[in-house]
């Protein structure tokens, strides 16, 4: 089932997600629905807060980047198969030069900005079977992970912008939170105070 994506301004996007265990209700169904929702919105990642759940769960499917002419063949090959579920993820270490890349977010449609992130990260997480895993991610895989990880920490990519950029985007962000936006997928907008 395709779920509505929570828009900028909803308090759930600012909550630090709670850890879950294998007894979390209807987890398999939730993961299937999140994957369907992400694909429908043409996203490469989706975190549980973006569908209104304040839990430490996100999915990544980086395969759309495998078509990019801007990437080396080795990275394209890696991203083609980078399709994972991350439960209770943690970043253990960040390393390497910070580099800029133009990011967007399904909860903040029609806004893309250059964001600086570390090149390499070491992580630990549980997969959909709650098997504990450790990995080192670099390049775009690391970037997508960091973006989705921020969601379960209550952080949005716009938080990483300069105060000038934030001021320039203020009206656009207000319009998103009010639902004054044209978008090709289902969204849930925050209730407006009267």
Notes on the structure:
The chain has 194 residues and is of the alpha+beta class. The chain has a single domain (5-188), classed as Peptide deformylase (Peptide Deformylase), CATH 3.90.45.10. It is built from four helices and seven strands. It has helices at residues 27-40, 73-80, 139-152, 163-178, and strands at residues 5-6, 45-47, 57-61, 83-105, 108-126, 132-138, 187-188. The strands form two sheets. The protein has a five-stranded antiparallel sheet with strand order 2-3-4-5-6, with helices on both faces. A hairpin with a 5-residue loop joins strand 5 (108-126) and strand 6. The longest helix has 16 residues, at 163-178. It is globular, with a radius of gyration of 16 Å. The two termini are 32 Å apart. The relative contact order is 0.21. The mean pLDDT is 96. Fe cation binds at residues 105, 147, 151. This is Peptide deformylase. Belongs to the polypeptide deformylase family.
Which stretches are poorly predicted, pLDDT < 50 over at least 5 residues?
Answer: none
Looking across the biggest beta sheet, what order are the strands in? Answer: 2-3-4-5-6
Can you tell me the overall shape? globular
Name the beta content range.
25-35%
Portion in helices: 25-40%
What's the number of structural domains?
Answer: 1
DSSP helical segment count: 4
Order of helices and strands: EHEEHEEEHHE
The CATH homologous superfamily name equals: Peptide deformylase
The count of DSSP E runs of length 2 or more, i.e. the number of strands, is: 7
Family: Belongs to the polypeptide deformylase family.
Catalytic activity: N-terminal N-formyl-L-methionyl-[peptide] + H2O = N-terminal L-methionyl-[peptide] + formate
Keywords: Hydrolase, Iron, Metal-binding, Protein biosynthesis
Pfam families: Pep_deformylase
């Amino acid at each position: 089932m395709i779920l509505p994506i929570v828009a900028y301004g909803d308090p759930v996007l600012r909550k630090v997600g709670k850890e879950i265990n294998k007894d979390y209700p209807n987890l398999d169904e939730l993961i299937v629905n999140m994957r369907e929702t992400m694909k429908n919105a043409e996203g490469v990642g989706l975190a549980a807060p973006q569908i209104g759940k304040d839990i430490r769960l996100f999915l990544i499917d980086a395969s759309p980047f495998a078509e990019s002419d801007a990437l080396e063949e080795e990275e394209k090959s890696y991203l083609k198969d980078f399709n994972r579920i991350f439960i209770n993820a943690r970043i253990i270490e960040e390393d390497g030069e910070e580099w800029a890349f133009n990011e967007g977010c399904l909860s903040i449609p029609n806004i893309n900005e250059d964001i600086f992130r570390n090149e390499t990260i070491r992580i630990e997480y549980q997969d959909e079977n709650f098997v504990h895993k450790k990995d080192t991610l670099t390049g775009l895989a690391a970037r997508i992970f960091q973006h989705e990880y921020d969601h379960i920490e209550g952080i949005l990519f716009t938080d990483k912008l300069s105060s000038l950029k934030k001021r320039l985007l203020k009206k656009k962000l207000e319009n998103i939170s009010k639902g004054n936006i044209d978008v090709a997928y289902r969204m849930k907008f925050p209730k407006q105070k009267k």
